[in-house]
Prior knowledge:
Elements: E1 6-9, H1 13-24, E2 29-32, H2 61-79, E3 89-93, H3 98-110, E4 114-118, H4 119-125, E5 136-140
Parallel strand pairs: 1-2
Antiparallel strand pairs: 3-5, 4-5
Amino acid sequence: MAHYDVIVAGVGAMGSAAAYQLAKRGRRVLGLERFDIPHAMGSSHGVNRIIRLAYFEHPLYVPLLRRAYELWRETETAFGEQLLYITGGLDAGAPDSRVVTGSLAACREHGLAHEVLDARETARRFPAYRLAEGHVAKSALSSPM
């Protein structure tokens, strides 16, 4: 009978990354997947995904994301392929919305480069966006650290 330190349920992008990191640390890991590998049934299928440094949900995510960026870069080095592309991003809404206030709190608490743009400046700089009058966009600059 095989014994494992950790069993990872689902080995898509996140599960396989978790299994890889645990195995690197000497743990015996079993990865279980319900579907064929690869498949289009999970949350991480397709050609791209997003990872944000300034999560609006809580500033405590920032240190976790900084570590995740480091691990992505380590993985890129190990496999000789760029996987993480930093592009910046916009969080938009009413100035007192949870998304805007939470994202700004994360930026301010952790010194993340950002700008706050009104609706007119957002449209000028990012022509695809047309915010409602009175709304703002928090623009995260592309440098992750």
